[in-house]
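>> Question from a student workshop board

For tomorrow's exercise we were told to take the sequence and the ligand below, predict the bound structure, and bring the output to class. My setup keeps failing. Could a helper post the expected result so I can at least see what it should look like? The ligand is erythose-4-phosphate.
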Amino acid sequence: MSVEAAPGVVEGLDAWRSLSARQQPAWPDQDALAAVGRELAALPPLVFAGEADVLTGRLAAAARGEAFVLQGGDCAETFAEATADTIRNKIKTILQMAVVLTYGASLPVVKMGRMAGQYAKPRSADLEERDGVTLPAYRGDAINGHDFTPDARVPDPRRLVEAYHRSAATLNLIRAFTTGGFADLRRVHEWNRGFTANPAYSAYEQVAGEIDRAMRFMAACGADFDSLRSVEFFASHEALLLDYERPLTRIDSRTGTPYDCSAHFLWIGERTRQLDGAHVDFLSRVRNPIGVKLGPTTTADDAFALMDKLNPNEQPGRLTFITRMGAGRIREALPSLVEKVHASGRPVTWVCDPMHGNTISSASGYKTRRLTDVLDEVRGFFEVHRAVGSVPGGLHVELTGDDVTEVLGGSEEIDEDALSRRYETLVDPRLNHQQSLEMAFQVAEMIQGI
Ligand SMILES: O=C[C@H](O)[C@H](O)COP(=O)(O)O
Ligand SMILES: C=C(OP(=O)(O)O)C(=O)O
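>> Workshop helper replied:
Here is what the output should look like for this input. Compare the format with yours to find the bug.
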């Protein structure tokens, strides 16, 4: 793997610089930004291009219905929360969900964190106003601070370097947890049994009991559980800040082609997927598997134009469409899109993000979501794909492994009054540990058609 930034080595890698890039911070000091770019370019890549290729293969399998994708993690990671406990709880939650989904789908689950780099957010408004004071909006820890003070809100490019180091530390711990015995299937199953033992979740006992019997059957057959102590786990984030992604793009020494080595998988957000924009151009030139978020106004022509630009060679697994329509719209907005793409025979992995189309404000002013809406969107996703004959390939979820109170509902019935108890997200509401597991059990049933 070459470690230089490869400026100009591959023609066009910097073409994005002359295109319109939405949602970029107003960096006050361009020289400081350029110096940070040079510093990042000299730092080691965070992932190996070969790992990204493995993921492309896994996503191709998901598109064929031979695997199911689970992508989850914070809306916005924060530097303060890049701690061992928080990372462990998130990994634990994703592993627990994956076991349930593996059982439900009878398929391998491709595990991907919105982790180790999810430090920048697109925002609806550039400015935030509180009590007559107006400041730049918080855009994620890679850009500015959340404190509502003029100093904190100034975009500071040194934060990009901090984001790199926090991502490196997070990835290091993820690798340790997922290969060092923490992910042992028997252990993860025991955690799930603990969850269903709680009377609040007794509705899920049946599925947990079935998994238990399957485990005992495997043991009786002499399954090698030691070979199930490690799991594959991939890192992903929104490729929003091109001043971060570009210096972390390296030329793969095996193939001489560029990979964005800030993560295995990068996605383009609903707000930055303009065909003639900088984000689409930049990601069209790297070889990682990539995703594009598609909201309810997306037309089939948009989808085809994105496929032309981002996957002209029709490589299976290269392009994932992450649909986020909203529970109220998915059944009318998704069918024509899926029908036309499916009829074209061109390879796309379809993943459902049931979070971003279902955001509401509580009476007390909290940005929240209802678990019932989230689950209804997933149900709509399966219905549409089943009706069309295409493959519902996975889930993309904002979640945390902690006991926060940000999303309404669930068996523990978080209501509007409870939101204030532990509302900790800095941007969008996340499912907490229990709600995430409930979702996994319910989705397992949806997959089985129960
Ligand atoms: O996560 C998605 C967006 O960044 C977020 O929903 C935008 O939030 P805002 O409308 O509060 O800016
Ligand atoms: C901003 C996000 O989503 P979307 O682009 O779908 O709004 C996100 O996933 O953090």
